[in-house]
Design brief:
Strand content: 15-25%
Structural class: alpha/beta
Strand order of the largest sheet: 3-2-1-4-5-8-9-10-11
Helix content: 40-55%
Number of helices: 9
Bound molecules: 3-hydroxy-5-(hydroxymethyl)-2-methylisonicotinaldehyde
Low-confidence stretches: none
Largest sheet: 9 strands, mixed
């Protein structure tokens, strides 16, 4: 069985980060090891959340893993909490990178033009160091703009997206994929760039007229799982876009706009069908 390690927080309530990555990647038939970076009572969109930093656990845990000889088919990082964590996770990349495993970085920092509570521009710049060591990075437009210094826009054309992708590739990953790209009101999807060949690719689905927390984590977990299951990047992106859209559609239909995250559990059978076909 293939094994992934995913490195991000546990938000006890809120369906994001590890509480999404674990069920989604496990459902794809892959062992999911975790390295929790922090323990929160709920995700940071709830006011008054508690936060227990787990930075001091990262080294002892990875040292034990090294002693045991554990290896991972992919290392997938999401929400991290501090400069120190970025440094420790970069070290972890160096220690656990092999010739054929994958390093996937979702530089979770913000959305809709704003950084999440607790993050600032300096933190965004520090995240570029993590991206440099990745095979694939999966920022949204907000995160891409903060990391590259290219101003965030809500109205844009293909040239703007290509500029962002080129700037992201210049950070050092093999592939950059931008999420949440929309050139018209009823389609949304992803555009990516191969840093070596400069070939671009894209995939779109119908658009659900609202945004939900945790959808980026559903998307990135699915891309990671599909790649480890041997799918091409184009195919992994298609499966992840479709699964994310299905979960958003179901959530919108049954709960409207005010859900605190998406009901990805209900659509897991569809994900399992897509990954096995
Ligand atoms: O879904 C991204 C995410 C992950 N972890 C925490 C968050 C968020 C988004 O707000 O607050 C703690």
């Amino acid at each position: 069985m293939k094994r992934i390690v995913t490195i991000q927080d546990i938000s006890c309530v809120g369906k994001c980060s590890l509480t999404v990555a674990l069920p989604v990647i496990s459902a794809m038939g892959i062992e999911t090891s975790v390295l929790p970076t922090a323990l929160l009572s709920a995700h940071t969109m709830f006011s008054g959340y508690t936060y227990k930093d787990l930075t001091d656990q990262i080294r002892p845990i990875t040292e034990h893993w090294k002693k045991e000889g554990f290896s991972f088919d992919a290392i997938y990082t999401g929400y991290l909490g501090s400069f120190e964590q970025i440094r420790l996770v970069s070290d972890l990349f160096d220690e656990f990178r092999t010739d054929d495993n994958l390093i996937i970085v979702d530089p979770v920092m913000g959305d809709n033009g704003k950084l999440y509570p607790g993050f600032d521009e300096d933190y965004a710049k520090e995240n570029t160091k993590l991206c440099a060591g990745a095979d694939l990075i999966l920022p949204n437009l907000t995160e891409a703009s903060c990391m590259t210094g290219i101003p965030y826009k809500t109205q844009y054309d293909r040239a703007y997206i290509m500029d962002l992708l080129e700037a992201l590739c210049a950070l050092g990953p093999k592939y950059a994929v931008l999420t949440g790209i929309s050139f018209d009101s009823d389609r949304i999807g992803v555009m990516g760039l191969d840093a070596e060949t400069h070939q671009s690719f894209e995939y779109y689905t119908g658009r659900i007229p609202t945004g939900y927390h945790g959808t980026g984590d559903v998307f990135s977990s699915t891309v990671t799982g599909a790649l480890v299951r041997g799918r091409s990047l184009g195919d992994a992106l298609r499966i992840a876009c479709e699964y994310t859209k299905d979960t958003m559609e179901y959530t919108y239909r049954t709960r409207g706009e005010n859900a605190y995250s998406v009901d990805f559990e209900v659509t897991i059978p569809e994900l399992v069908r897509m990954i096995n076909e």
